[in-house]
Amino acid sequence: MDDHRLKNTSLSPDRALLVAVDLGQNRKSVPRSAALAREAANAASPGEGMQMPAPEMGSEAALDEFRELVTSAGAEVVAEVAQRRQKADPATLIGSGKVEELAAVAASCGATLILFDHDLTPTQQRNLEEALPCRVVDRTQLILDIFARHARTREGQLQVELAQLEYMLPRLTGRGLFMSQTGGGIGTRGPGETQLETDRRKIQRRLVQLRRDLESVRRVRSLQRERRESVPVPTVALVGYTNAGKSTLFNALTDAGVLESSRMFATLDPKLRAIQLPSRRKILLSDTVGFLRNLPHTLVTSFRATLEEVQKAEVLLHVCDVSSPVFEEQKAEVEKVLDELDALSKPRIEVLNKMDLLPPEQQENLRAQGRLLLSARKGEGIEDLLRRIDASLVTDPIVRQEFVVPQDEGAVLAALEGGTVLHQRRFEGNNVHLSLAGPASLLSRYRRFRVAADTGTGRDVGSGATSQDHGPSDPEPGLGNT
């Protein structure tokens, strides 16, 4: 068996055997289809006020998603095995008879890797690897591998390594002859314990260093956020299921040119760019990592520094793939993660992306319901989205004011006309009379030219200044990319 594993070192893709396990009594692990949820809702009487749980992904949809994960990891699917059980087998998850069947299927199709769409305990994984002719990988380990492939920045690599080591630590026991705690013969027990404890100490030291490095990243992000909030500029974060089109929408809004890919978790490292809304108000748009069904808790914990952008955002854009047959179930999974991040109560705009994949009559039905549809790939519906964002923001409100500015104040005129919506402009002698609507933070910088309500003159007496006001000589702060 060990020789067989050592032979699988070529650059050719892994030949994967997929194993889907449906545990009947574990409701958290067993997806329930939207059809069953609707049947249960119809069965309840309307007067009872019965609250239905969030829909969960059906078995077929979950298997389709698992295939996409395997493809994103670079493996080739050669066979699939499914099993329904009332409860998990403590030793192998699937039972001894199914293990024998898996061994036969793996040998017949030449599989080099067996992937479980379920989390395995350290004991289950050790027993399966001893009984099967190739490597065994569970769902969490597969997702971690995909994250490791796609991490590009130093921060992303640190977060992935932290999650991998936390996953690996309880699984060290039994990894090979010289790490066996159960060996009873001479030459196995002593050296095995020494090697095991040495590896544990190395991992523990590395975990401490990684947590320190990530804490430094968090402090830097916190300082950057404090500087941004002092402007003030609201932040809007893109959230959604993996492969819902968040990066494509981010590019459509910002022209940032970030990677767009149909592979899952193509975006791991957060992106932040400034954009201007129709009101001429500037915001920061943040692109974040996609969410997934049963996202491993270690990943949510390790990516806490990245996901802080979601927690601090004023408004969330929940991007949904409206063409997906499990659209509602994916939406519910995203809301579960937002709840874990304490961000579920934030204002959210639901964006139904990929509308170009729907038939025209279905698009009209959704629009009649007041839903926001767009196609990020084709650039359709972007203006409507920007207006929705504009209307939902509370920070730095849009106000309408009158100004009288001397014509020789060219810099002031350029700043006001460039950063606001101009409703009226007229010339009177050496002065320019302007009626503007724009961000309060911008207009307050030039309050000395504001028309006072009681006098109608071009010089304001200074009343009405707020904590957002800047001095007359303050330059307009710029918004750089971070």
Give the topology.
Layout: H1 2-7, E1 15-23, H2 34-43, H3 59-72, E2 76-85, H4 96-109, E3 113-116, H5 122-131, E4 135-137, H6 139-150, H7 154-168, H8 189-229, E5 235-240, H9 246-254, E6 271-276, E7 282-287, H10 297-302, H11 304-312, E8 315-321, H12 327-340, E9 348-353, H13 360-368, E10 372-373, H14 382-392, E11 398-406, H15 410-419, E12 421-428, E13 431-439, H16 440-443
Parallel strand pairs: 1-2, 1-3, 3-4, 5-7, 5-8, 8-9, 9-10
Antiparallel strand pairs: 6-7, 11-13, 12-13
CATH superfamily of the largest domain: P-loop containing nucleotide triphosphate hydrolases
CATH class of the largest domain: Alpha Beta
The backbone outline, from C-alpha atoms, is elongated
Order of helices and strands: HEHHEHEHEHHHEHEEHHEHEHEHEHEEH
Question: What is the helix content?
Answer: 40-55%
Structural class: alpha/beta
Number of domains: 3
Strand content: 15-25%
As a whole number of angstroms, the C-alpha radius of gyration is 28 Å
Q: What average pLDDT do the residues reach?
A: 77
Largest sheet: 6 strands, mixed
**Number of helical segments with 4 or more residues:** 16
Number of strands: 13
Strand order of the largest sheet: 6-7-5-8-9-10
CATH architecture label name of the largest domain: 3-Layer(aba) Sandwich
The CATH topology label of the largest domain is Rossmann fold
Question: Which parts are unreliable, with pLDDT below 50 for 5 consecutive residues or more?
Answer: 1-10, 25-54, 174-190, 454-482
Give the CA-CA distance, first to last residue: 50 Å
